Amino acid sequence: MRVQKALFTRVEASAPWGVRSPVHDGFKFALLVRGSCVLTTRANEAPITLRSGDVFIALDGSPYETYDAPGSALLDCAEVMARQIDDTIAIGGGGAASTFISGCFEIDAHDAAPLMSVLPSLLLLRAGEESNRAIEELLGMLARETARRNMGSDAMIARLFELLFIHAVRAYCEQQALPKTGWLAVTSDPHLKHAAHAMHSDLANEWTLDSLAKIAGMSRSAFAARFKEKAGQTALDYLIRWRMHKATHLIQRSELSLHEIANCIGYRSEAAFNRMFKREVGTTPGQFKRASRIASSLVPNVVH
Questions:
Q1: Domain map of the chain by residue range?
Q2: How far is residue 117's CA from residue 169's CA, in Å, rounded to a whole number?
Q3: Cα angle 99, 105, 107; round to 5
Q4: Is the CATH number of domain 3-175 2.60.120.280?
Q5: How many other C-beta atoms are found inside a 10 Å radius of the C-beta of residue 158?
Q6: What is the pLDDT of residue 304?
Q7: Spelled out in words, what is the top-level CATH class assigned to the domain 183-296?
Q8: Which segments of the chain have a pLDDT < 70?
Q9: What pTM was estimated for this model as a whole?
């Protein structure tokens, strides 16, 4: 994953207070450091009460509202940001205090696609879990790094946001029931996970149903049926999707030729690679490469 834009700040809120987030491409998150508040989103009909140590990440760009209690006046995010002094914002009427670290970040759409296909629009992580403590430590490191702005800070901040997201996804998988279908279901299934790991680790291998079933310790027919049930597609279609996902990554991030990329993901014929890439991605590898280079010249890696 590669973070393209990242921004966060510390908010000191005192009752009554309320914040309305904008519609925003990318992921929005907040860690409640102390106190409590209420969260409402389009994805959840009922208000969600958050307490100290809780974390949420909104993945679909939809607006949300946080406030101390129903009926409190809501400030638009732009009004809140206008009150920022250094890395802290103070809002509210002087009553009961709550502190939270809030921000947003963007990840390349192609990198995010597999996760977005299986994750809900809102990740809610409750306090008390080990992974939540790791998230809090990461946010503390982010605060220190942005305050110092030493050599390599931009690279450090980008990596910390990537780690923040990885920890959040891991915590979600530990705290919630996993999806019953999709790649996450396949990689967590005790019968299929070794075959899936083998495919992911060596996309250039000439995989067949027989070789994958052998790794899974299953008969060919039993493996094929279980894989389709869990993935929602055949094992070989699943392999093609991951090969094309890897191809888009290599086209965007490497200096390899298209012929070399085809070989890296298991295609000895560049023509066959071109046909499959266009079928899955909707454009030829060459067209995708030109469009990616134009896009990367217009968007900086990290914006604070």
A1: 3-175, 183-296
A2: 13
A3: 150
A4: yes
A5: 19
A6: 39
A7: mainly alpha
A8: 1, 110, 129-132, 146-149, 295-304
A9: 0.69
